[in-house]
Amino acid sequence: MIVSLTIIRYPKKRIPLAFLSMALHHLPLMLTKGCSFYKLMGSGRNGTFDLKPDLQQWALLAVWDTQQDFDAFNNASFVNSWWKRFAKERWTVLLKPISSHGKWDGKEPFGSGYGKSDFEGPVAVLTRATIRLNKLKGFWSNVGTVANLMAAAPGYITSFGIGEAPVYRQATFSVWKSVEDVKTFAYRSAEHAEVIRKTREQDWYSEELFARFQIIGTEGSLNGKDPLAIKTEIL
Question: Which of 52, 59, 119, 202 could form a cystine bridge with 162, CB 3.0-4.6 A?
Fold first, then answer.
């Protein structure tokens, strides 16, 4: 299994085409050989859950049976041709699941039970949730605190806020130097631990998923550079 996350940036004048792609790309993706799961998403302006959309930046997360299936899509698909013609930039990171728990639209897209707790090296983390409509106020009132903590946390490298729908279907993709850095931020920060407690006690989410990945490669650029290029020594 290979997982790809592609971030696409469009010129301002082509923002309407970006919106159109969210509808047009479903059928070719559904028919793509070797693609077992995909999500077309928008992006926030900041690197985490975000109420402010970046209308120039969009995302595709997909799960592939093999590297060859991804390569075929990446080289000769309708979606790839669309990006080449209309997008300004795109950046893709390829990933291998290390662990995953929870569901996304009732599915376990990255499998479960990997259990590679001894993994060493840089790690990518995907956190996504469907927020209960009657819990939106509580959720969003805590987002700023968590975002600031994450950006200042030891081992944090970069992150992207992505989502299927504004406000209530949100995800964060982040990259860290090690699994230990992720654990320290998630469980040993008093402020973050308090947010986790509220999440459980107040039952913010109707569905959630947390997954970790090994980074196996990147290609392309965003804003003129590979977001992980300055960290090539970790890859």
Answer: 59
Contact 209, 128 (CB under 8 A): yes
Q: Is residue 233 part of a domain?
A: no
**Could you tell me if residue 170 is inside a domain?**
yes
Count of domains forming the chain: 1
Could you give the CA distance from residue 94 to residue 73 in angstroms, rounded to a whole number? Answer: 13
pLDDT digits (tens, 9 = 90+) for 6-26: 999 999 999 999 999 999 999
Name the nearest CA neighbour of 99 among 82, 85, 117: 117
Q: Which residue has the higher pLDDT, 201 or 214?
A: 214
Instruction: With respect to residue 235, please indicate whether it lies within any of the assigned structural domains.
Output: no
- Residue 128 domain boundaries: 2-228
Using CA atoms, how far apart are residues 82 and 156, in angstroms rounded to an integer?
A: 33
Q: What is the DSSP string of 78-142?
A: HHHHHHHHH-SEEEEEEEEEEEEEE-BTTB-TT-S----TT--S-EEEEEEEEE-GGGHHHHHHH
CATH for 104: 3.30.70.100
Within-domain flag for 89: yes
Long-range contacts of 217-224 (CB under 8 A, 24+ apart): 217/93, 217/94, 218/91, 218/92, 218/93, 218/94, 219/91, 219/92, 220/6, 220/89, 220/90, 220/91, 220/92, 221/89, 221/91, 222/7, 222/9, 222/89, 222/90, 222/91, 223/9, 223/89, 224/89
Question: What is the H or E stretch that residue 175 is in?
Answer: strand 169-176
Q: What is the pLDDT of residues 125-154, one digit of tens each?
A: 999 999 999 988 888 887 777 778 888 889
